[in-house]
Structures are given as structure tokens and as C-alpha cells.
Amino acid sequence: MTESVPQPSSTAPRGKRWPYLIPLAALLALGGVFAKRLFDVENGVEISAIPTVLLNTPAPAFDLPPLPGSDQGLKSDELKGQVYLVNFWGSWCPTCVYEHPVLMQIAKDGEVPLYGIDWRDTPEKGLAFLSQRGNPFTRIGQDPHSKAAIGFGVALAPESFIVDKKGIIRYKQPGPITAAAWRDDILPKIKALQAEP
What we know:
Layout: H1 14-42, E1 63-64, E2 74-75, E3 84-89, H2 94-109, E4 114-119, H3 123-133, E5 139-143, H4 147-152, E6 159-163, E7 169-174, H5 179-195
């Protein structure tokens, strides 16, 4: 009598194959993301722009206390009727240090009121940051608990927003304002909005 010896299966049971499919699915998804980005670049889509759902909607209401030594904080009701630029910054933010000389030049040129919101910072650290680098802001409000930042949809500092005369958010600048971005993109938008009735 001959015993039949079971032959090893050339394929793994179905239940044991699924772990091998997860990396394949992840690789395919990643490839799809890269292909989409390449397609966007080839077709002239601005890939660094971060869309905001708040564009062309009213700026959120806020009433922020001042930094110590200042008698005026920042209140949204007092800003209506003018085009202005609001900048979220913090002493903890290395990119804010990089952006700061551009903000100082914007303030010096006086093309638009520049309001600062010291985000997730202590008053002492915010004051130290400004005393070392200069204060470009017309007025500053403190936002240590992110109330205004959440209202504006801020993800990372620095972020800046152009708000029109009616209090509508018209532009979002994610990341630092560079001299080129100011000259080529932001300032022309501000001038166009200032020319509107």
C-alpha cells in the first residue's frame, strides 16, 4: 500500500494573501497622487496654493486683547470700511523670522494697514520678538487659544489674509510673504480692491 504524500500548494490560502495586497494598494495610491501632481504641473495649476473654503466669505468676528504696553487690541468691527492685511505670526515660528523683513518693508511703504495676530504665544515672547526685529503692525491682538486662527482657518504660521472694505476675505497667503509674492501677487490684489467703491 502506497501512501499519498500531500503536495505543497503553489499558492497561499486566500486568507494569507491579503497582507501582501496592502503595500501594493498603498503603492498604487501613492503613484496616483504623484501622477495627479505631475499632471497639474504640466497644465499650469498652481501647486503651492492652498485653497480655503473661507475665500469670498465674511471674515470672522474677533475681539483680541493687546500685547502689554499697548492700549488697543484688535477688534474686527473697527477694521471694516478699509482693505487690510492680517498676518498670523508667533515668536515660536522660524518662518515668521524669515518673513519679518518683508513685513517691515510693507509697513514702511504704507500701502495697506497691516494687522498682526500673535498666535499661540505668550505676551512676553511676542513682545521680545518685536523688540528684537521691529514692529511692522498697525495694531496687534493676542490669540493664545487660537479663537481667531480657527475662525480664519489658519493651519500654520505665518499665514496672511487680504480682507476687503466690506469685511470679506479675498485672498489667503499660506506661508511667508516673500518680496516677489508681495510685488507680483499680493500688492496688485490690494490695489485693485482699494480701487473698488
